[in-house]
Amino acid sequence: MGNVQQDQNSIVKEVLNCAVDAMKAIIPAELTVGKPAVLNGSFDHHAIGVFIGITGDLPGRIILDGPEDAFASLGTKMFGMPVEGEMVESFAGEVVNMIAGNMSVALSSKGINIDITPPTIIVGDSKISGFKQAIELPLSFEGAGDYRLVLNIEKGA
User: Fold this and answer.
1) What would the DSSP string read from start to end of 26-82?
2) Angle CA 76–36–83, to nearest 5
3) pTM (two decimals)
4) 14 vs 115: CA distance, rounded Å
5) How far apart are CA 134 and CA 150, in angstroms?
6) DSSP code string of 85-141
7) What percent of the chain is predicted at pLDDT more than 90?
8) What is the mean pLDDT of residues 14-35?
9) What is the distance between the alpha carbons of residues 122 and 49, in angstroms, rounded to a whole number?
């Protein structure tokens, strides 16, 4: 049993590292990564959250959560023009899809097999539950706000 947990911990670490590397490759802003924290039971979501399901070696979800104005600033940095209104939600879904796709390819090169689902965008306040465990990673993009990356691990994984 210990090896299974150790293997899962190694996969979790690789997933988070590859997600951060993908963000650094895709987003043209200096990224500061905070200290990871373990979440158990549930957590609250505010503003815009983009959920992408993960299947394979680590079933769960990867979520990027942040304020609407932060995603708008990020879009402006990436495209060099204002991203406003409904375009912010669409941009958030697309940028997280790009991050997850890049992460998936990097994990595959390390022998970790995952597939991703299309993004689901959640706007407003909600409570997220129904997972075994989650790891939260605070992120800050220079000039584009604060976010959190959450990796939910499915029950039974």
Assistant:
1) H--S-EEE---EEE-SEEEE-SEEEEEEEEESS-EEEEEEE-HHHHHHHHHHHHSS-
2) 10
3) 0.90
4) 15
5) 6
6) THHHHHHHHHHHHHHHHHHHHHHHHTT--EEEPPPEEEES-EEEE--SEEEEEEEEE
7) 73
8) 95
9) 5
